[in-house]
């Protein structure tokens, strides 16, 4: 991308999409109820509280209890959205989420923010790096990782109409807006091919999608045509798109800001190894805890960059 | 005082449920007879006297809800649901069997009349609070009842739910504590004591009542009083006997999660039939 184009780039945190979508949902659907666990300002659900105070419930610092209450509300016909940090929504509250919400296939949507290493300075205790793994393992749980604010907003809005629980992974730090708000449509289980190429497929989620696009541009300069797929939905996986691309390029790099154990790379590998085996490399966090730092510092330190994607892609293409 | 005929009817129902619990767990070869027997009278009063519900229309919006938070006592719940007509009594024999609508712990997706899946301890109380909250949002008049165990009260999530229910003044919610004094590893008081129970719940903002959980009159009256509480949820602390009604099971910790063998089934049924 040229310096000029980079200057014109706009940035939003995906969590902003959550707050905005909730406001629209609140106006559209009287059954929508929002819960938070003392993080409404951070998750941005505070706006919903302001406009729909009778349908907003702050459960205090009690994530397990919040999931239990949400299950009861959903069992009584409400469409629930629960906010917290990804660490606590999926870690602390894993068991109520699994045993009450998911087992009952209840309409409780988990939209925690502050996922991944980019939480930054708060450090390891607040950096959920295992949340995709945990949520993906639960039968019936849908897992969505929006790449930008526009995608996040549309995913949250869509979740209100999807039967059963949906996990939407949101981030704290502002990231580039890569989608066109005018034309963007979210569809659960549908990936988007953002750039076509014949040499290698890069399957990315969340903020790594922008890094993948940057990597593809750098690769093109060296004569390597990378196909960039914004996976969007980790579960259910868009098998058609992944399969088609892997068949075409024969090489796949996955990219996520999450542990490599059980995350997006695993999901893609599980599918391809059984259906279209091909050389595959993964960019992500290699079974480590995070630490304090600025989001950019941390992304570099843990190798979650366009540069890392490019290197892995090049290695695959040249081997 | 209840009319003698009504009281007799309820006692007979409770006895029938106890017999079913014995037959079901005996047939299954596993399950939790002790805590099912201690909860049998409370469940009986709820389903055969107190709650407003339509067994032929389990999803009727106006129904009172019951959440069995101590889900392992589900043989008693299933027996009551079957006797009410939610499903055929013939199903009872399939408890815990492969493919059965009667799972080892309550499963809302399989069993008509089960409001929400429970079994993992502690989850039922906040879920009941969520249901009560939904009732408040909808300005509905139904009530939500739940039953928790004394050992279960060691779960932190119980107290998260307790705080939430009190904060939101959920006076359309009534909980029972099946205070039978025993948990798997021994006496609740010797594992991690939960006393003082009434003071704890009061401190959490609940109205409390203390009753004999096997006295039908007591249960009926406490429910009437608890329903009438305004501005806060109510907890009925019911002193009960684990294994109640079967002499060799009463107050015996080992009958928490062990099924009776054929000989024990026969003896238990004989005792229960004689009590009838």
What is the CA-atom radius of gyration of chain A, in angstroms? 19 Å
Q: In total, how many domains does the architecture of chain B comprise?
A: 1
- Most extensive chain-chain interface: A-B, 29 and 35 residues
How many helices of chain B does DSSP assign?
9
Helix content of chain A: 40-55%
Average pLDDT figure of chain A: 96
CATH C-level name of chain B: Alpha Beta
CATH C-level label of the largest domain in chain A: Alpha Beta
The SSE order of chain B reads: HHEHHEHEEEHHEHEH
The main pleated sheet of chain A reads as: 7 strands, mixed
- Count of distinct strands of chain A: 14
Strand arrangement within the widest β-sheet of chain B reads: 1-2-3-7-6
Global geometry of chain A: globular
Topology:
The complex is a heterodimer of chains A (319) and B (276).
Chain A: H1 3-8, E1 11-12, H2 14-28, E2 32-36, H3 40-43, H4 46-51, E3 56-58, H5 63-75, E4 79-83, H6 86-92, H7 94-102, E5 108-110, H8 131-136, E6 142-144, H9 149-159, E7 166-168, E8 175-176, E9 192-195, E10 200-204, H10 208-221, E11 226-230, E12 233-235, H11 239-249, E13 252-259, H12 264-275, E14 280-285, H13 295-301, H14 306-318
Parallel strand pairs in A: 2-3, 2-4, 4-5, 5-7, 6-7, 10-11, 10-13, 13-14
Antiparallel strand pairs in A: 1-8, 6-12, 9-11
Chain B: H1 4-28, H2 33-50, E1 65-68, H3 74-84, H4 124-137, E2 144-149, H5 156-167, E3 173-179, E4 182-183, E5 186-187, H6 188-191, H7 197-203, E6 207-212, H8 216-228, E7 234-239, H9 262-275
Parallel strand pairs in B: 1-2, 2-3, 3-7, 6-7
Antiparallel strand pairs in B: 4-5
């Amino acid at each position: 991308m040229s310096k000029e184009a980079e200057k014109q780039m706009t940035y939003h945190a995906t969590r902003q999409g959550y707050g905005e979508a909730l406001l629209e949902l609140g106006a559209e659907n009287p059954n929508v109820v929002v819960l938070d666990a003392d993080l409404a300002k951070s998750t941005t659900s505070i706006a919903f509280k302001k406009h729909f105070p009778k349908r907003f419930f702050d459960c205090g610092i009690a994530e397990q209890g919040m999931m239990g209450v949400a299950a009861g509300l959903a069992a009584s016909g409400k469409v629930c959205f629960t906010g917290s940090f990804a660490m606590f929504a999926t870690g602390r509250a894993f068991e109520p989420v699994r045993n009450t919400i998911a087992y009952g296939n209840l309409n409780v949507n988990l939209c925690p923010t502050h996922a991944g290493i980019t939480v930054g300075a708060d450090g390891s205790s607040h950096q959920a790096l295992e949340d995709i793994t945990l949520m993906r393992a639960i039968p019936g749980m849908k897992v969505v990782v929006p790449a930008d604010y526009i995608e996040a907003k549309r995913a949250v809005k869509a979740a209100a109409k999807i039967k059963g629980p949906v996990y939407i992974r949101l981030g704290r730090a502002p990231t580039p807006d890569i989608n066109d708000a005018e034309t963007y449509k979210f569809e659960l289980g549908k990936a988007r091919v953002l750039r076509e190429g014949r040499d290698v497929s890069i399957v990315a989620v969340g903020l790594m999608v922008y890094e993948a696009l940057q990597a593809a541009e750098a690769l093109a300069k060296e004569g390597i045509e990378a196909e960039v797929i914004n996976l969007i939905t980790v579960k259910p996986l868009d098998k058609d798109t992944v399969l088609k691309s892997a068949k075409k390029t024969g090489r796949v790099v996955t990219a996520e800001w999450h542990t490599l154990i059980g995350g997006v790379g695993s999901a893609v590998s599980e599918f391809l190894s059984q259906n279209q085996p091909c050389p595959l490399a993964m960019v992500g966090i290699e079974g480590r805890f995070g630490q304090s730092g600025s989001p950019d510092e941390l992304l570099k330190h843990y190798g979650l960059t366009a540069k890392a994607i490019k290197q892995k892609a090049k290695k695959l293409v040249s081997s | 005082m209840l009319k003698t005929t009504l009281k007799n009817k309820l006692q007979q129902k409770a006895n029938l449920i106890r017999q079913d619990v014995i037959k079901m767990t005996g047939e299954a070869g596993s399950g939790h007879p002790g805590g099912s027997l201690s909860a049998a009278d409370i469940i009986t009063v709820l389903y055969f006297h107190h709650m407003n519900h339509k067994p032929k229309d389990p999803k009727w919006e106006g129904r009172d809800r019951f959440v069995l938070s101590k889900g392992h006592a589900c043989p008693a719940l299933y027996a009551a649901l079957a006797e009410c007509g939610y499903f055929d009594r013939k199903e009872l024999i399939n408890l815990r069997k492969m493919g059965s609508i009667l799972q080892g712990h309550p499963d809302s997706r399989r069993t008509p009349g089960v409001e929400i899946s429970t079994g993992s301890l502690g989850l039922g109380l906040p879920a009941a609070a969520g249901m009560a909250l939904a009732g408040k949002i909808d300005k509905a008049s139904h009530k939500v009842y739940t039953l928790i165990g004394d050992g279960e009260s060691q779960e932190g999530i119980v107290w998260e739910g307790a705080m939430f229910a009190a904060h939101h003044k959920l006076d359309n919610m009534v909980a029972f504590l099946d205070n039978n004094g025993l948990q798997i590893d021994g006496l609740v008081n010797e594992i991690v004591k939960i006393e003082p129970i009434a003071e704890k719940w009061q401190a959490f903002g609940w109205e409390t009542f203390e009753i004999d959980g096997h006295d039908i009159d007591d249960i009926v009256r406490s429910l009437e009083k608890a329903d009438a509480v305004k501005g806060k949820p109510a907890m009925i602390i019911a002193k009960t006997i684990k294994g109640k009604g079967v002499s060799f099971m009463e107050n015996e910790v080992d009958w928490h999660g062990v099924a009776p063998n054929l000989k024990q089934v026969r003896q238990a049924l004989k005792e229960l039939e004689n009590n009838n």
